Amino acid sequence: MVELDGTIYFARVQNNATVDFFYAINHSGSAMTVRWSRPAQWAPTSEFAVGPDGSVFVMDPGNVTARRAALDGSLIASSVAIPANFSQLPMAVDRDERLFFSNGSFSNGRCYSFNANLTPRWSVAVLNINIGALAIGKDRTLIVAGIDKLYVYRTPRCRADYNEDEFATGDDFDAFVVASEAGCSRDSEEWSYTVDREK
Question: How far apart, in whole angstroms, are the C-alpha atoms of residue 66 and residue 64?
Answer without folding.
Answer: 6
